Amino acid sequence: MGENSTIEWTDHTFNPWWGCSRISAGCRNCYAADNARRWGQDVFHLGGERRMLSDTYWRTPLKWNREAQQTGIPRRVFCASMADVFEDHPHVANARARLWDLIEQTPWLRWQLLTKRPENVSAMAPWTDAWPDHVWLGTSVEDQQRADQRIPVLLQIAARIRFLSCEPLIGSVDLAPYLTCPRLGALDGTQGFGDHQRRASRIDWVITGGESGPKARPMDPACARRLRDQCQDAGVPYFFKQWGTWGPSGARVIRSRPVAGSKLVGDPIDELGHRVEMVRLGKKASGRLLDGRLHDGVPPLGPTRPPASGA
Fold first, then answer.
1. CATH number of the domain to which 236 belongs
2. 106-129, pLDDT tens digit by residue?
3. Residue 130: is it exposed, middle or buried by C-beta count within 10 angstroms (0-12/13-18/19+)?
4. What's the number of domains the chain is made of?
5. Is the peptide bond prior to 168 cis by the omega test (within 30 degrees of 0)?
6. pTM here?
């Protein structure tokens, strides 16, 4: 899978293995599990097998790194769309160690590691106080419960870029406390942090998107707008990835039950009791416009240290 990614916020996708287990509400309609089943792979359940990829496939990031070095433009690599690098599973320990070596060999790539298990990162990653500049670390946040569970853990890890994937966004989330540079002591009870550490103790990037697929849940537009506005107020890049299967019809509706092919979301938006109507349009037709415009904010790629020999 994927030299050039179809995921809008990255350039390439690399999957060191396939498979994971569901751990929260955002996993319910997992697109990766559906994709694996289409390929005859039953690898998305607790304790199940994990599909390993070939040596030929593992060499593709080395090629991307050479190409990025030749152009002088770093490339972003999402790892892994079909797995969770930080899943505690006995079948992946060796592959995970191999991944760390590959990352060290490819400094012209911006590795985007996204996990639902930030509590495992410190024990599994080979870096402690000084993460490589080209490794970005993110966690998935689908609702407020997961935000409050996962983000404080993420903020204790010294990655250069820490980001959130609020997709599928299935509930209202308040990110303001995590976007405005709180003292680390406010999160872990310690004191005495300097200005540099205070600047570093916030989220650097927010991605938002709705769910796609036959069982997709609609995203309340008000939830996406709230995160957009909070990011704008804090000066944090905001990326609106997609509406997903359900898109806003543009109608404000008063009725107790939606008609066929539509759903009403959120609380009433005025004193008359109007609610927002979402309709099943499909991912392509729903598109990526939020209030009539694209939101493609991303962090700067940053400088690149000289590549390792043989990379």
1. 3.20.20
2. 999 999 999 999 999 999 999 988
3. exposed
4. 1
5. yes
6. 0.88
